Amino acid sequence: MPIAVSMFPLHEGARILIDGVHLTINSAGSAVNLQTQNGTTAKASVRQYLLDARALDTTLSALQLAWPDGSPEYTGRLGVEVSDDLASWRSLVAAAPIANLRANGQTLIENRAEFSPTKAKFWRLSWLGIAPSFELTGVLAEPAPASPSLSAPPWR
After folding, report:
1. Distance from CA of residue 113 to its chain's centroid?
2. Percent of the residues in the chain that have a pLDDT greater than 90, as a whole number
3. What pLDDT sits at residue 4?
4. Cβ distance 40 to 109 under 8 Å?
5. Nearest Cα to 38, choosing from 18, 14, 55?
6. pTM for this model (two decimals)
7. CA spacing 20 to 30 A to 127: which of 7, 62, 85, 137?
8. pLDDT per position as a tens digit, 8-46
9. 29: phi > 0 → left, psi -120 to 50 → alpha, else beta; which?
């Protein structure tokens, strides 16, 4: 049964977009006056997510991504890395295909990244290329299937 994992979006730095700038320098009074017109803040996009799996005492074999219903269409790839110390990262999945498509009343959703059974404290998800315009709302970790017991030979 999938288990919810604590997820932390890593936002890119917020940028200020300025359409017009008016600068006045008054040297007599040593005053500077800066005025902007139509200044807006661009929404910082999320290109990576950090997952905290320290509470999980199980080996995982897949991650299932969740995003809001009605999210814009998207196709792209997601990289998955693991770490036990947040300093050294190991690539687990180079480029998992992710899709959120709709056409003629039908949907095509690919929201799983599968990998060989792995146990790690931290997981990093990174969008490769263009990130989707929506943010993930959650990630479910899928435990690896139990391996057959080695205690009794199968021919008994």
Report:
1. 12
2. 69
3. 95
4. no
5. 18
6. 0.75
7. 85
8. 999 875 444 444 544 455 555 545 454 555 554 445 689
9. alpha
